[in-house]
Design brief:
Layout: E1 2-8, E2 11-17, H1 24-27, E3 33-38, H2 39-44, E4 53-57, H3 66-78, E5 86-91, H4 93-105, E6 111-116, H5 119-125, E7 130-135, E8 138-145, E9 150-152, H6 163-180, H7 182-190, H8 193-197, H9 200-220, H10 235-242, H11 249-267, H12 272-284, H13 295-302, E10 308-309, E11 312-320, E12 323-330, H14 331-341
Parallel strand pairs: 2-9, 3-4, 3-5, 5-6, 6-9
Antiparallel strand pairs: 1-2, 7-8, 10-11, 11-12
Bound molecules: nicotinamide-adenine-dinucleotide.
The site of nicotinamide-adenine-dinucleotide has 30 residues, from helix 2, helix 4, helix 5, strand 8 and helix 6.
């Protein structure tokens, strides 16, 4: 086990990497802790939850809503949870987002921690303090930024993670490599998903590296004024096509990264051989690199994006593999790129 302590603007978060679920007994008082998980994780790892107060939710994004928050709060009241209670989200990003949000509002805020059980939650969702819920079709529309007290990583959970969730998460891992870590990109080129799945040592090292990338970006810019925006690489077009074409988030991001690479090639001197490397690595991890989508409609959806500012769109582009920047593109130029190049 490796313990790291990270200081954010007004809180300290302990990371227990390469740890085991059992360590929880040392981090929190079992008698005053409530675990929150979903049915998939609970059923696959039931023995781990023995002896712990546990709230088990229905799995899936459609439950990341206010009605679930209300139901959790009623169950907490029933369990006698008070201001000294610790809430721990044990699950994927839906569970960690929900748990962090409930913990921020229940009795005006109680201590909370996360045990991420999907790769995506391990390398992305559980890090950075963004917690929240969806409202109608609007994802993450309501929420708070509040850091957990701790993150505990037990990769044993991953033994039961479905294949499509692995692929989904590798889109974000490849994204991290593109924006921040050329060496990790080379490593990803030389391995396959199965190599990572079958070797706990390389997998743990990969998770640790991604945890550190996301943590360092967030620490430099906790409230998203600058550097944290780089994490949106691939997400601008990704968000515009994800719902309309019923894509997995990772699939939409993968297609979005290829589009961003093409734009980078056109206006940011990103080399075409680097773009080819990106396409190859995405395919190597089972991710789609193209989609026959309605460019005009996608551009219209893009215009509703948060990143639009008076006649310009802030787009995350690559300079080279491992280095990204936010470029303000005039909408007229972006529209041309959409109709002629993408
Ligand atoms: N807060 C943030 O900064 C942030 C960042 C990225 C994503 N997110 C959020 O994260 C969510 C996506 O996360 P996700 O992909 O983990 O989704 P998820 O929580 O829905 O998990 C995906 C699926 O895997 C199952 N699962 C999880 N761990 C498992 C395990 N060990 N064994 C078997 N099944 C398991 C879940 O039950 C679910 O069916 C989205 O809601 C997204 O908005 C948040």
């Amino acid at each position: 086990m490796e313990k790291q302590t990270h200081n954010f603007s007004n809180s300290v978060v302990d990371y227990y990497l390469n740890a085991s679920f059992q360590l929880l007994l040392e981090i929190t008082d079992i008698n005053n802790t409530v675990l929150i998980t979903d049915e998939h994780v609970f059923k696959a790892h039931e023995q781990k939850f023995k002896g712990w107060n546990t709230i088990v939710l229905m799995p899936g994004e459609q439950y990341k809503v206010q009605a679930t928050v209300d139901s959790i709060i009623l169950q907490l009241i029933e369990l006698g949870a008070d201001r000294k209670t610790t809430l721990i989200g044990v699950g994927g990003g839906v569970i960690t987002d929900l748990t962090g949000y409930v913990a921020s509002v229940y009795m005006r805020g109680v201590r909370f921690g996360f045990i991420p059980t999907s790769i995506l939650a391990m390398v992305d969702a559980s890090i950075g303090g963004k917690n929240g819920i969806d409202v109608g079709v609007y994802k993450n529309m309501v929420g708070v930024i509040r850091q957990p007290s701790f993150l505990l990583y037990d990769i044993q959970f991953l033994n039961t993670l479905p294949q499509k969730e692995w692929e989904n998460a590798f889109a974000e891992i490849i994204k991290h490599a593109c924006i921040k870590d050329a060496d990790m990109f080379s490593e990803l080129e030389s391995y396959s998903l199965d190599d990572y799945k079958n070797n706990n040592e390389v997998l743990s090292a990969l998770i640790k590296r991604n945890v550190e990338i996301k943590t360092s970006v967030v620490k430099n810019d906790e409230f998203e004024a600058g550097e944290r925006k780089l994490l949106n690489f691939g997400h601008t077009l990704g968000h515009a096509i994800e719902n309309k074409y019923h894509l997995l988030h990772g699939h939409a991001v993968s297609i979005g990264m290829v589009a961003a690479a093409t734009i980078s090639e056109e206006i940011n001197q990103f080399h075409s051989t680097e773009k080819e490397r990106l396409i190859k690595v995405l395919m190597q991890y089972g991710l789609p690199v193209q989609l026959n989508y309605d460019k005009k409609k996608a551009f219209e959806t893009l215009l509703k994006d948060k990143k639009k500012e008076k006649g310009f769109m802030n787009y995350v582009l690559l300079k080279k593999i491992g280095e990204a920047e936010v470029v303000s593109i005039p909408l007229v130029q972006l529209q041309d790129l959409f109709s002629q190049t993408l």
